[in-house]
Amino acid sequence: MSDNTFGRLFRMTTFGESHGPAIGCVIDGCPPGLEIDVAEIKHELGRRATGKSRHTSQRREKDDVQVLSGVFEGITTGTPIALLIENTDARSRDYGNIAEIFRPGHADFTYFKKYGLRDYRGGGRSSARETTMRVAAGAIAKKYLREQFGIGIHGWLAQLGPIRTDNTLDLSEVDNNPFFSPDASVVDELEKHMDRLRKSGDSCGARISVVASNVPVGLGEPVYGKLDADIASAMMSINAAKGVEIGAGFDCVEQLGTEHRDEITPEGFLSNHAGGILGGISSGQDVRVSVAFKPTSSLRLPCRSIDIHGNPVEVKTKGRHDPCVGIRATPIVEAMLALVIMDHVLRHRAQNGK
Ligand SMILES: Cc1cc2nc3c(=O)[nH]c(=O)nc-3n(C[C@H](O)[C@H](O)[C@H](O)COP(=O)(O)O)c2cc1C
């Protein structure tokens, strides 16, 4: 299986499966001299962790990250940074019954057709357990961007199923509730919605928004390395992501040109429908991104599928699952944006100097 590496100059290679002994990553290209505080990485991992509320999977992983290389006396040395997290709460027996069947909405069918075999335990390599390492690497990128440029990267839940959560945008609320909602007043409604869904055995989708502020002008390449193209690719690489919007996104279909174009005055831009990127290059405005996540596929409600021999089967999922995968996606979306911007910071420096 190729393509386990993300980025060109800030390169993260991840490895591991959901129910293997461990997952990990190697980050190559991190500049030397960056102070690494493991507590900060753990903090980000804690934001993504399962089992923190009844609204996420009840798998309880400690996510105790070990830094194996690339850091000496708390400072990056410029050599590869290897991070490792042991899987301590995998329950593979839950997956014995799906060894020979394809769960709808999962990668089972395509993996099997492509490779002729698959690690069916917890989804194997296709599991969102892999995103743990994105969040860990993203924590390092976030720190560098914050310290060198004052770049802030903040995400939130913008919509869960039919419930809009971004009518009030109070970013200080995001980490105060289990949904990453920026509006405290809708948390009760979210709880009730999720409780109803869990009882019915169904799931729902979600939309996550993220903004990078203080991004300098000039990041991104004008043709094949467009900043927006790289962001879209990064977001679409997250499990269950089904759509990415930059700035006004699909709303631009109904906008008039006079409304959409962001007029410029000596004091700056008058709006930001472009989402902070023009011609693939950052404009200095906030980089604004939204990602749509599909509803969780693993449901205890029965559905039709086939086994590896093509026979019809009924699938009912066992195991511990997120009833709305988007609930835990906010830190992952933030991490992917940090990784893309970090990579482009180094790429810009490589071509243009400081
Ligand atoms: C944070 C997160 C948690 C997820 N948890 C689950 C889960 O518990 N059950 C499930 O069926 N899918 C879950 N998924 C989605 C699957 O990993 C994904 O749908 C599957 O691998 C197929 O890939 P695709 O949806 O990208 O095509 C999760 C996704 C994310 C981002």
Which secondary structure elements does this structure contain, and how are they paired or packed?
Layout: E1 5-6, E2 11-16, E3 22-28, H1 38-48, E4 66-69, E5 71-72, E6 75-76, E7 81-86, H2 108-115, H3 131-149, E8 152-160, E9 163-164, H4 187-200, E10 206-213, H5 227-236, E11 241-246, H6 257-260, E12 264-265, E13 268-269, E14 277-278, E15 281-282, E16 287-293, E17 303-306, E18 312-315, H7 330-352
Antiparallel strand pairs: 1-2, 2-3, 3-7, 4-7, 5-6, 8-9, 8-10, 10-16, 11-16, 12-13, 14-15, 17-18
Helix pairs in contact: 1-3, 3-7, 5-7
This protein binds flavin mononucleotide.
Flavin mononucleotide binds at residues 57, 106-107, 123, 126-128, 131, 238-240, 294, 296-298, 321-322, 325, 328-329, 332.
Task: Label this structure with key terms.
globular, 7 helices, Chorismate synthase, AroC fold, 354 residues, alpha+beta, five-stranded antiparallel beta sheet, binds flavin mononucleotide, 18 strands, single chain
Give a quick summary of the entry.
By secondary structure, the chain is of the alpha+beta class. It contains 7 helices and 18 strands.
Secondary-structure arrangement, i.e. CATH architecture: 4-Layer Sandwich
User: Which whole number gives the mean pLDDT?
Assistant: 95
CATH class: Alpha Beta
Number of strands: 18
